[in-house]
Amino acid sequence: MRKIIIDIDNTLWDLAPILYVKLLEENPHMPHHSEWRSWNFWKGLISAERLYGIIKDVHMEQDTFAPYEQSRDFLRLLREKGFYIVIASHREKETYGPTRRWLEKNGLPFDEIHLSYDKSVLFDACWAVVDDSPITLEKARQAGIVRVGLKNPWNEAEDHPLFTDLGEVYEYLQGQCREVGRG
Ligand SMILES: [Mg+2]
To answer: How far apart are CA 27 and CA 4, in angstroms?
Structure first.
């Protein structure tokens, strides 16, 4: 069975606007999320420790936020296609409870949850990864697995297959399945 890694933040739900509001409370000079043009946009504006603390607070309340409208259908289609779904998020182990509740409450199908600070440890056993992080996408390219993600200001300058919604991401994955089929 083919395994696929699916990210959560800015892949299955819209983290950026929520994070922006919280970051603005810390620093009034924080740019709007539409201006986050690199993965490290926050450097010099907030400490790494404080940033991770704020992100953890959001993750601890994960079950209070809504997923993207297409997330459920996207995961259902992957399931129907026979994929084994590994939900993988860069977040603390302590956030497992709210993360799992969020998936279940919103009817988001999955087979496994992986929370860590380096999801590339999963790459050897997986066919593809869906993620918006330019760091993860680059690692996937180097590992030679299929990579795809939603286009965002912090990744759009990079050379990766990026799309505006999960329907397009699914189409791309289907195309990659056919490529392999033609082998
Ligand atoms: Mg993400």
So the answer is: 37
